[in-house]
Amino acid sequence: MPMKLDIKKELNSHSDRVKSVDLHPTEPWVLSCLYDGTMNIYDYSTGTVVKSFEVSDQPVRCGVFVPRKQWIVCGCDDMMIRVYNYNTMEKLQAFEAHMDYIRSISVHPTLPLVVTASDDMLIKLWDWEKGWATTMIYEGHGHYVMQVLFNPKDPNTFASASLDHTIKVWSISSPIPNMTLEGHERGVNCIDYYAGPDKPYLCSGGDDQVIKLWDYQTRSCVQTLEYHEHNVSCVSFIHDRPLILSGSEDGSAVLWNSNTYTNEATIQLNKERCWSASHHKGLNRIALGYDFGTVVIKFGRDSPLVSMDGSGKVISIKQNEASTMNLRSVDISSYGDGDRLPLVGKELGATENSPQSISHSPNGRFVSVCGDGEYIVYTALAWRNKSFGQADEVVWDSGGGEYATRRGASDIRVFSNKFKERTALQTDFMAEGIFGGNLLCIRSSDFVCFFDWESMQLIRRIDVIPTNIYWADSDLVALATDQSLFILQFNREAFETVLDQCGGVVGPDGVEEAFQLLHEFSEKVTSGHWIGDCFIYASSNHQLNYVVGSEVSLLNHMDGPTYILGYLTKDSRILVADTSVNITSYALNLAVIEYKTAIIRNDQEEAAQVLPKVPASEHNKLAKFLEKQGYKEQALDLATDPDYMCELALGLGKLDLAADLAEKDPSPLKWKSIGDVAMQEGRLDLAEKCMVEGEDLPGLVSLGMATANAEILERVAGT
């Protein structure tokens, strides 16, 4: 069965001929190097030009990001290498590097090294920490060198492609090639390394219109792929999927299945010749450079294929290989917020499809994997196949072990916890997605409908288009859309009352009283998780926040996109994964959440019982939370910061307490604030004291004149 790639065009810019593109690994940017001598950085999430560089009056044939230095390094037909800071746009370096056009640049992943290739048939190694000195020159090709690329699995080696029909593999420490791969009948334009652990593969494309797959350990050609009708100008392994991309001067880009070597999709964008491509591990995007502009294509989902059960067992899938990690194998408490946990994966087995989603059942015993129109339910421990079928999506209920599948726009089925089909649901609208939880939720292009799992009775239609729905263990539910986050409360009792009144028949909109909107926030949520009545979420602007009631609290700023796996109560830590399934944790004390929840519910007795469990380091933050909820007296009792305590006392009209606090931690601003309020309330003795302590001479003069107090005026005159 062919893969379901869900290809979407994210950026479609129009420009002069694009000779090179490079995706930034963390920012939503693509670098375009143009034949007219300019470079543009596009934000593909907004479709706008972020930066533009006037580089040369000659074509810019190659350019790459160096994220660890905030640089762009580019090469031009004027034989010059230039280095720019992409934040300040300052040109940092410019020097003549070759005796002919510069075709390609590759940056070492860890060392301060850059390798360049040119039409002068030379490859050069540069060290930026040595003032961009040439540390090695590699000779051996008999024609233009079109591309060079470091091996991601062995960065002490790199490969080169040349119009002399060959590919050579080099060590950075030797000017003599380790090997030469021959097989193309004409010049070789492009190469890419496979970054996965299982295959020592390299792919290449040439003027003979074919793509070749090489095993560089056995030095043999594994496969030849034919489709294009003109020169193949770019190739790229798609590192998180079993795919190879090829682009050609015939205008087409092809996605090949790297397991079966079949054409999975042909992309025709009518932008004339395709010259370059870029893809990074962890990004489900491809950038393509054409005669008439730059295109960024998104395929599949943004989040990694990873799921965690309630005990801390994680299952992730890369390519078709599933592995498990146990968070209990490390002492999470000994690692700080954002520290990568040194987890060791254990192989579970291979999936029988090309997965696009994975999720644990509520009890953690089973895992559903869905992809390419098929689903499989595995046992979480032994990775045994328990059930399978055709579906585009699989979702679980909140605890009974039932699950639902969606195939196409109208085929929705519910299965029992014995993996037997229990019922099929017929809707009068086209289903575009389903969500699990306390209720079965079905999304159309304009709204979402909630159904009871047991009876399949329509409960409520809501006119929003959620990207995801998150249920708490209670009756709270979070609806995340492209622009907003809605917190709602489900009232089953109200629904059943109306249902009885209607004789068991409700209209197409369901029962309005079934849901109550509690809060709305202008946030784009990428992932979320409930802890009691607290909703934790990662936002599109790389923040980790949590919501209790209407109060949003920032937990941490993230370096890039992260996805919440869950919460470990024993450790009081939130677990998150990045796109490469590097797992980190962040502290969020459960007692803090319970205290805030009790306050929101106005359960003062519960709050008093929980408070002793709250660490003293959190008291001042809770005091600010209490103040926002209108509990200023409690906030004052809990506050620990002297400035904040003084401010609260002043706001409550407790001037003597504010003055006592000011004496313990004095500052002119505090004394002036207290003195001003004391004057307004006629506390002239306190006002005078504040002015004296705060050395407010103009204030003392005003006070002395207003009260005809010669003693005050004489005291001021004597200072």
Portion of residues in helices?
10-25%
* Mean pLDDT over the full residue set: 91
Span between N and C termini? 92 Å
Query: What shape does the CA trace take?
Result: globular
Structural class, by secondary structure, is mainly beta
Radius of gyration: 32 Å
Provide the spatial order of strands within the biggest beta sheet: 1-28-27-26
Beta fraction? 35-45%
Largest sheet, strands/sense/barrel: 4 strands, antiparallel
**Spans with pLDDT under 50 lasting ≥5 residues?**
none
Count the beta strands.
55
Distinct helical segment count = 11
What does this 3D model show about the protein?
- The chain is mainly β and 719 residues long.
- The protein has eleven helices and 55 strands.
- The strands form 14 sheets. Strands 1-28-27-26 form a four-stranded antiparallel sheet, with no helix packed on it. A four-stranded antiparallel sheet has the order 2-3-4-5, with no helix packed on it. A four-stranded antiparallel sheet has the order 6-7-8-9, with no helix packed on it.
- Helix 5 (632-638) runs antiparallel to helix 6 (642-651) and helix 8 runs antiparallel to helix 9.
- It is globular and about 100 Å long.
- The termini are far apart.
- The mean pLDDT is 91.
